[in-house]
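User: Can you fold this complex?
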Amino acid sequence: MRSVLAITGRDLRSLFLSPAGYVVTALFLLLSGIIFMRQIFLAGQPASMSQMLDFDALLLLFVCPALTMRSICEERRQGTWELLMASPPGMGRIVIGKFLAATGFLIVLLGLTFPYVILLEVYGRPDPGELLSGYLGVLLMGSLYLASGILASAMSGSQTIAFLLTVFFWILIGLARVGAGSLNPALADILFAIEPYARLQDFTTGLIDTANIVYFIAGISMFLLIAISILEMGRRR
Amino acid sequence: MPQQGNEQFYPFLRIRVFHQDFHQLTAMIKAERLTRRFGGLTAVDQVDLNVPQGSVTGFLGPNGAGKTTTMRMLCGVLTPTSGQAWINGIEVNTHPEQTRVQIGYLPESAPIYPEMRVEEYLRFRARLYHIEESVKSIPRVLDQCGLTHVRRRIIGQLSRGYRQRVALSAALLHEPKVLILDEPTAGLDPTQIDTIRSLIAELSQDRAILLSTHVLSEVEALCDSIVMIAGGRVLASGTLESLCAGDEKVCEVEIDAAGLSILRADSSRFQLVEVIEQEDGWCHCQVTAAGLSDPRPVIASTVTSGGGRLRTIESPRQPLEEVFRSLLTSDRSERDQA
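Assistant: Here's the predicted assembly.
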């Protein structure tokens, strides 16, 4: 566990020190703020953050791959990946350490939107259950994107390709669901089951469904396990 | 190789490490028929290695010879296609964590995180290896590698020599019994090279060091034994003396005029190939003795028993560069013929 935390701490620090981290944070907060001011913080509007959280989830589709694209690619480029591979922690601990670092950054990022919640609390009466459920959903969805981003970073030798691979994968899943609906209802059902956005909407409206939690945790585990297997195979290739 | 020695359990790592009795088992780094293929390319082909404790073995070869690949297999970074390797008697592939904890690895170009501070990087490495970082280990390696005064500096702002030292200090942090150093002095200036070499010589007292290089002078300065590799195959291995030994039938002697006369008189046994008379009265000669593979004892006893004086006697040594070049040439011609 100590080695996992060592990797988490190092990566987290690297994310906070990198210009990419600041740019991502600034853009995320700026766009969230615009949505908050234009859509939520208006007289007569219900005191709910669901619109902003739905939009944040959409932003995370770009934010999360930007956070994870360098997690393994950059280590490979610098040559430090070889040192990690030669150190006692196995591949599982290295990947989990990196995932926790990215998730930690995401938590901080979401935490920075907390002033909006305070504003809403001052001027309205938001439902705390719905708020918590919404944030939990965005966190789970972001973590799913992060896990898939780490997989893309493990598969690719370039940060740009890792970023694009993650973004296009999720866009493709979303579009395929819409497109398949008109062609094949059975395929549409399958794609609907694996598409995360609809599940997020349950969370943002205050509904915590165990099936949705299981879906996100299973998805995160699957992406991380594939990443670990691919990296472990790299020793043999 | 059977696992011998004492077994110790490290609860924080949840692994068992077999500590070997070095008197029974001297090879700290051992490889047998280590082979690595990348697709159709055989990068390392049946390499055997044996590095005992307290010695430095030079891993010598041109670029692309397979040195780095071999080292990566020893460190567990790459899995061999076939063959086996042991670190301190523990098989690398079946017990990766146990072996990695015993190796200090310095990869080529000494990669480190440029945004971190020296001390901070060492703390990170200490946590990776589960070492009590602040109490003893970090000040020890900082002092050992002459980094105490730059410990708070950002690594990316240090000179290449200092970065190399930081990487080396990180490799020494967990007090490994085995050091695998891939071209540790590449790209350094002469002063920095001297510093790193002195450090390696100091470290070799109680460790097994495998040092990859293509700088022949480095091998001569540091190594007890040499493994020469090219095209993934071991061309030759042994001590510097054994590899560079010249034609033992020829001896170079320094004798006085009386000694020279004795050897000339016994022309049935000794043949003087070359005689250079020196100003101080001594003669430098090359001598062969019929039917003897090493004529030195016979020459010495003949000269001294006949009343002559002998100042030096030795078999001429080939320069390492020449040995290496001739091995490479013969290997290339063998491959071309094949």
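Residues 1-5, 20-25 of chain B have pLDDT under 50 and may be disordered. The radius of gyration of chain B is 25 Å.
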